[in-house]
Amino acid sequence: xxxxxxxxxxxxxxxxxxxxxxxxxxxxxxxxxxxxxxxxxxxxxxxxxxxxxxxxxxxxxxxxxxxxxxxxxxxxxxxxxxxxxxxxxxxxxxxxxxxxxxxxxxxxxxxxxxxxxxxxxxxxxxxxxxxxxxxxxxxxxxxxxxxxxxxxxxxxxxxxxxxxxxxxxxxxxxxxxxxxxxxxxxxxxxxxxxxxxxxxxxxxxxxxxxxxxxxxxxxxxxxxxxxxxxxxxxxxxxxxxxxxxxxxxxxxxxxxxxxxxxxxxxxxxxxxxxxxxxxxxxxxxxxxxxxxxxxxxx
Length: 298
Ligand SMILES: [Zn+2]
Prior knowledge:
- This protein is α/β, with parallel strands linked by helices.
- The chain is 33% helix and 24% strand.
- The strands form 3 sheets. The chain has a 7-stranded mixed beta sheet, with helices on both faces. It has a 4-stranded antiparallel beta sheet with strand order 2-3-4-11, with no helix packed on it.
- Helix 1 packs parallel to helix 2 and helix 7 crosses helix 8.
- The protein is globular and about 45 Å long.
């Protein structure tokens, strides 16, 4: 297997990457991966991750609920219930920060198309990019939305999008700086970029350490704190105009993390702990399990 080894911090360019945590791929192979941390800026990354053309197998786990519509098990049930509320909240956030009421929206990593369908119902002209053929077919059948494969990202004309969204996608993409650069090219000058990422400084991340489900090695390559992401955004000439918490993720991630630890009644324990993390987040939003960053061109 071809592994991608990183020597230089992609956020600050420093060459001192130090071992930080060893995490297991709990979802599929049980293989262990090291997470390294930059000695200068603190950004963390999964070391020696599989290349983009080989990582497909790591997404083929039956437990990868993002692309499934089954209703089995407490975690899946909760996921589907929450998705409805989360979709409404995502749409509201996008519309609040969009340069206009409707326009051209691109969702990168659009999955099965639920978010695009929500935006389409609000009169947005939507396009999706999704690497999974199965998910693209689903979006077409269920919502009549045409999604393109990954190569399409480089076919889109410059400055044509009013909004580009990436919901828990950037942490999966090998060419971090390349994608940020491309995002800058795609949006109009007054356009908005919306990026949701797990937060490695969240209450739940600090509590669960190597069991934290949002390290999700080797699928998650990059592990951001709010300051890491601000650093990267600035480097690409973006300002972060708002940071918003995603409250539900604390519950879902805590339940999965308890499962990773092998806790008895993991779902229940995770739900209770997730609730406690959520309550603490109310007065400290930047320690939310996941954060939504709203970017504008400088
Ligand atoms: Zn760094």
